[in-house]
Specification:
Layout (H helix, E strand, L loop, with lengths): L6 H5 L6 H9 L3 E5 L6 E5 L15 E7 L6 E3 L5 E7 L7 E9 L2 H6 L3 E4 L3 E2 L6 E2 L10 E10 L11 E5 L13 E2 L11 E9 L3 E11 L1 E6 L2 E2 L3 E2 L10 E8 L7 E10 L1 H4 L16 E10 L4 E5 L5 E4 L2 E5 L3 E5 L18 E4 L7 E4 L5 E7 L3 E4 L5 E17 L6 E7 L1 E2 L5 E2 L9 E5 L6 E3 L6 E9 L10 E8 L5 E5 L2 H17 E2 L1 E2 L12 H14 L3 H14 L26 H13 L2 H20 L33 H22 L3 H22 L11 H9 L5 H17 L11 H10 L3 H9 L7 H5 L34 H10 L1 E3 L8 E4 L9 E8 L2 E10 L2 E8 L4 E7 L7 E2 L2 E2 L4 H4 L7 E6 L2 E8 L2
Parallel strand pairs: 4-11, 18-26, 24-33, 41-45
Antiparallel strand pairs: 1-2, 3-5, 5-9, 6-7, 6-8, 6-10, 10-11, 12-25, 13-19, 13-22, 14-18, 14-20, 15-16, 15-19, 17-27, 20-21, 22-25, 23-24, 27-36, 28-29, 29-34, 29-35, 29-36, 30-33, 30-35, 31-32, 37-42, 38-39, 40-41, 42-43, 43-44, 44-49, 45-48, 46-47, 46-49
Helix pairs in contact: 6-8, 6-17, 7-8, 7-9, 8-9, 9-10, 10-11, 10-12, 12-13, 12-14, 14-15, 14-17
The structure holds beta-D-glucopyranose.
């Protein structure tokens, strides 16, 4: 029954990896211990019947089929969509050694393997993620079915997966038969009510499928026969509208009926022409709203027809009298055009439409997850403030809106105002929203119960103030609904410390509130812009909490589109702030985010697409430098660093901005080199390798004294210099000492701003100051991560002291209570405390590292992450002087696991002592860890603490 591998076979592993896998194949459970003492690898077999499922031979199942990271997507305009699938099995050490994919236009022939349009045959490969379609040209609007089977490490084939599908969008400009339409009436130029468009049509034949392609210059909400098309909101989202405009694709077959039908849509000003940016500008992309819609009908008899926007449509206005993202929506229900989206409605007083002509922007199929309604919240309390305001607290700072149920008289007017916090006395506080009114107004038509809900705005709030509500405010009549991009929730971190768990909650809600189609800085004031710096510092953390692959791929497309001609990058993307740009740490979003996505998802296409932009940015810095020193231009610097109010002795942590710039110049160049290596651009790798050497030399010459002190003695200066390897090896440990001393001199407080904070605990850990990193994490007085938590925060704040200890506020002109940047500590919690990480040689968690770090008095911590391969997790706890570590590695993944080790022979797995081998008894471990190489499976380790 036992699966013994030959011990000497395992020793072959000294020279390379393949024999390790050989061991792995021969036994179902193999450890390779990396001896740093003897520098040789030794395999251990766990001689346990419990663990070895020899003979059980569980069949591998193939599940979770994705195309372009989406389940059954419709509206793909990529000619080589990529397939991903997961292997699921109870069996340990499962690897894929080959796969076969087949694709057909017909579901039943797919199952029979006939009439295939593409079949790969058996391909020897361990790739189960991002496998590109390489068959013949895919056609517009066609639906393709596919399935896959794999062979495992014993060359056993799986059964075919259940079929899945994807559907193509409109691939050629000529596939669009629709014309843009615009309202034909003269618009009220003050309120600018939402235009409504409608078109009745007849259907006489049986429909096989009806696919709608819709976009707008503005925001749209489409209706067919009185029903809303799809459940996406604020479509088509926000892109660099002048360059690329997404359209959504919906299967509307079920909405159509035989005989009379009506299709229509309502538009909102949105980002297109509403107020945007903080200088009161509007009409940034254009003055007029317009709609483009096409429904392609496929009849059962094989014939086709399209219902398209054209000059036969009609336009009018309805109950939405005005809507603005910052200011809110105004609905007068008395002006509702009842039944306008149903057949039989009399539209004789509606206006014809005009045809404004095509959009200069390229139409692209939307490929990121649309904004959808997510969590809902009932009032936690309904109360009156000291000023007598009628308030409702939803208990969570969220982004979305409130749905109100009400019964009243015609003309009753309700106003709902939104706020994130109450002031010191408990009154409604909106000064920090600046010019954003964040107010929804409803005028009742009266009679029956009415339900109000905005369409084309969103608010960041925890509290609402209700004015004009007829009757008592009953909790059941108010529901707050969160809206954000419908990304999969992929990760969580948890620990024995309730405050840290609240911090994790706040980080996740910071992400939910600011991932509305674009990564924004804040969701509540007159800003809500795609600040590049904020996005880059948070991007890696974001990739743990949610599936942000497509979200960032889409945004990076806008980065590329809005990059300035000289390679500099605007401060915000989509760019609505003019041609300013090039700030260090902000513009580096173009290098850092693609690289983070490569690590988190193994998405090579993001690197391929962004490479030009990455290079242009590095070249810009090079051109702006003199003697390899980049010390010109405007920079935000270490934004919002610690600076005490009455700074008599210079406690403020001011870091020289050009020192920071030189560090990020090096960091981006390093990333460019790494990307060049991945993409096989060896000439670039060599060229930029030489440049990087010079950048670092210039840094030392300008910013480091011969003794190793940096000209700015701040935490951020040392963190960046160490984190980006700016210092020669010999100078690093003394720099780390200086950093540690600095932290201690502030009584274990951080002083870093946006740019230093993300790397602070990483650097401390790397240089042996794990204890200090934990002290910073657990610090709960200002400035620290837990200070806002203790002050009742439910999201991450923009400033370390958004609310001061005496309950007064930071300056209202810049004081958001929902800013994700400082949430970048999440990355350290996942990667260091729980210890789950990917190796760059197996990005996207194909080759994982599990290396938990204990400390800070935590008795338990753990994280899980849904990777493209399946669930990866690591959780440790300390109980009765024993450390327990549970690890799960998905199939087709290999792991290098560092088990906290008390020393010789005290590690067990699922109750089986790993002491049978001499090697363990001689204590082959390093830095308190026993390093083992594992295949997939669930493992339960136990060790004894020292
Ligand atoms: C934003 C930031 C942004 C910063 C740049 C602020 O107004 O909210 O998060 O990065 O400006 O200085």
């Amino acid at each position: 029954m036992l699966a013994f591998a030959n011990f000497s076979d395992c020793l072959d592993g000294i020279v390379g990896e393949p024999p390790y896998f050989r061991c792995l194949f021969q036994a179902n459970f193999v450890f390779t211990v990396n001896s740093f003492v003897a520098m040789k690898k030794i395999c251990f077999l766990l001689m346990s019947l419990q663990l070895i499922h020899v003979g059980v031979k569980a069949q591998i199942k193939i599940e979770n089929l994705l195309v372009e990271h989406l389940q059954g997507p419709i509206g793909i305009d990529i000619q080589e969509p990529r397939f991903s699938w997961q292997l699921t099995t109870e069996k340990r050490n499962t690897l894929q050694t080959a796969y076969e994919i087949r694709v057909s236009l017909n579901l039943s022939s797919l199952k029979h393997g006939s009439n295939l349009i593409w079949s790969t045959g058996k391909i020897n490969s361990d790739s189960s993620v991002h496998v590109p379609y390489r068959g013949g040209a895919l056609e517009s609007g066609k639906k393709y079915f596919w399935q896959v089977r794999v062979w495992d490490e014993t060359n056993r084939p799986s059964v075919w997966s259940e079929p899945s599908f994807w559907q193509m969008g409109l691939l050629q400009a000529s596939d669009w038969k629709a014309s843009w339409i615009q309202a034909g009436y003269t618009e009220d130029s003050v309120l600018r009510p939402s235009p409504v468009f409608r078109k009745p049509f007849m259907l006489h034949k049986k429909i096989r499928s009806a696919i709608a392609y819709i976009t707008a210059r503005g925001l749209y909400e489409a209706m067919i026969n009185g029903q809303r098309v799809g459940d996406a909101y604020l479509t088509p989202g926000w892109t660099s509208y002048k360059n690329r405009l997404p359209y959504e694709t919906f299967d509307v077959t079920a909405l159509l009926r035989d005989g009379a039908n009506v299709v229509g849509a309502t538009l909102g000003s949105g980002w297109y022409r509403g107020y945007i940016g903080f200088s009161g500008q509007k009409n940034f992309y254009g003055k007029n709203l317009s709609l483009l819609m096409q429904i392609d009908l496929n009849y059962e008899d094989g014939s086709v027809e399209s219902i398209v926007t054209d000059n036969t449509w009609k336009s009018s206005t309805g109950e939405i009298k005005g809507s603005e993202i910052y200011n809110g929506e105004f609905i007068d229900a008395r002006d509702e055009k009842k039944g306008w989206a149903l057949p039989g409605y009399n539209d004789s007083d509606w206006y014809p439409v005009t045809l404004p002509g095509p959009s200069p922007a390229k139409l692209i199929a939307a490929y990121n997850e649309p904004i959808k309604k997510q969590e809902t919240f009932k009032p936690l309390r309904v109360f009156s403030s000291p000023k007598g305001e009628k308030l409702i607290d939803f208990g969570q700072n969220l982004v979305g809106w409130v749905i109100v149920k009400v019964k009243g008289k015609p003309g009753d007017r309700i106003t709902i105002s939104h706020a994130e916090v109450l002031d010191k006395s408990g009154n409604f506080y909106t000064d920090n929203l600046r010019a954003a009114k964040a107010q929804d107004t409803y005028i009742l038509k009266g009679g029956e119960e009415e339900i109000f809900e905005p369409h084309f705005t969103f608010h960041g709030f925890q509290f609402i103030k209700v004015e004009g509500y007829p009757g008592e405010l009953k909790p059941e009549n108010f529901t707050a609904v969160a809206l954000y991009s419908d990304m999969k929730k992929t990760g969580n971190f948890t620990s024995s410390n309730a405050l840290i768990n609240q911090l994790q909650h706040n980080i996740q809600w910071g992400q939910r509130g600011n991932f509305l189609d674009v990564p924004t800085d804040c969701p509540q004031r007159d800003e809500r812009l795609g600040w590049t710096g904020d996005a880059q510092v948070f991007s890696r953390t974001a990739s743990f909490n949610m599936g942000v692959n497509n979200f960032f791929a889409k945004w990076l497309g806008d980065v590329e589109a809005d990059q300035l001609g000289n390679g500099s990058l605007p401060f915000v993307i989509p760019n609505v702030l003019g041609s300013f740009g090039g700030s260090t740490g902000w513009a580096d979003a173009t290098t850092i985010i693609p690289w983070n996505m490569w690590l988190a998802y193994g998405d090579r296409r993001i690197l391929e697409h962004q490479y030009k932009s990455m290079k242009a940015w590095v070249d810009y810095m090079q051109k702006s430098s003199k003697d390899d020193l980049w010390n010109t231009g405007f920079h935000f610097g270490d934004w919002l660093f610690y600076s005490p109010a009455d700074d008599n002795d210079g406690r403020a942590a001011v870091t020289n901005k050009y020192l920071i710039a030189q560090c990020f110049y090096a960091h981006s160049t390093q990333i460019l080199i790494d990307a060049a290596n991945v993409l096989g651009k060896s000439d670039d790798a060599t060229y930029y390798g030489l440049l990087l050497k010079k950048i670092k030399e210039a840094f030392l010459k300008e910013y480091m004294t011969p003794n190793g002190a940096l000209v700015s003695g701040t935490q951020t200066a040392y963190v960046l210099a160490l984190g980006f390897d700016m210092l020669p090896e010999a100078f690093r440990s003394q720099a780390a000492v200086r950093l540690a001393e600095n932290v201690k001199s502030y009584n274990n407080h951080l002083t870093t701003g946006f740019l230093g904070t993300p790397y602070l605990c990483q650097v401390l850990t790397r240089f042996g100051y794990l204890d200090l990193a934990f002290k910073l994490l657990l610090q709960d007085t200002y400035p620290s991560w837990l200070y806002p938590v203790k002050m009742g925060a439910t999201t991450i704040w923009e400033r370390w002291d958004g609310i001061k200890p005496d309950s007064t506020f930071e300056t209202p002109s810049m004081n958001s209570y929902n800013h994700y940047s400082y949430g970048a500590i999440g990355d350290w919690m996942y990667r260091v405390v729980a210890g789950i990480d990917t190796y760059a040689d197996g990005p996207g968690y194909k080759h994982v590292q599990i290396m938990p770090h204990m400390g800070g008095g935590l008795t338990m911590a753990g994280a899980e992450l849904q990777t493209y391969y399946g669930k990866l997790s690591s959780a440790w706890k300390i109980e009765n002087n024993k450390v327990f570590l549970d690890v799960e590695i998905p199939a087709n993944v290999t792991g290098t696991v560092f088990i906290p080790d008390a020393g010789a022979g005290l590690v067990s797995e699922s109750g089986n002592q790993l002491t049978t081998n001499q090697a363990i008894q001689s204590g082959i471990s390093k830095d308190g860890y026993l390093e083992v190489k594992l295949g997939s499976g669930v493992y339960h380790f136990a060790t004894v603490t020292k």
